[in-house]
């Protein structure tokens, strides 16, 4: 599993954002968890509890991104581009 590949994004985010409760910080953390779980599930296809956890985290991240897009579209676009994730089809 690739564990240390996403630490620079978090450290960069911590320097920029001192508030770990901000939407951007939470989305970055959820994205790192999603990428870790995805790499885990590539090896362990029948780990259904991890699949359920992944779906829950995906839903949380989607709700946060939806909130951010409604409140501030510029910050939303910037975050989507920086994390290299697809834009939501349903908002």
TrEMBL record:
GO biological process, one term: translation
A cellular-component GO term for this protein: chloroplast
Keyword Ribonucleoprotein: yes
Family annotation (SMART domains): Ribosomal_S15
Keyword Chloroplast among UniProt keywords: yes
Domain of life: Eukaryota
A Gene Ontology molecular function term of the record: structural constituent of ribosome
Keywords (A to Z) from UniProt: Chloroplast, Plastid, Ribonucleoprotein, Ribosomal protein
Family designation: Belongs to the universal ribosomal protein uS15 family.
Assembly, per entry: Part of the 30S ribosomal subunit.
Record's subcellular location: Plastid, Chloroplast
InterPro entries with a match to the protein in the record: Ribosomal_uS15 (IPR000589), Ribosomal_uS15_bac-type (IPR005290), uS15_NS1_RNA-bd_sf (IPR009068)
Name listed for the protein in its UniProt record: Small ribosomal subunit protein uS15c
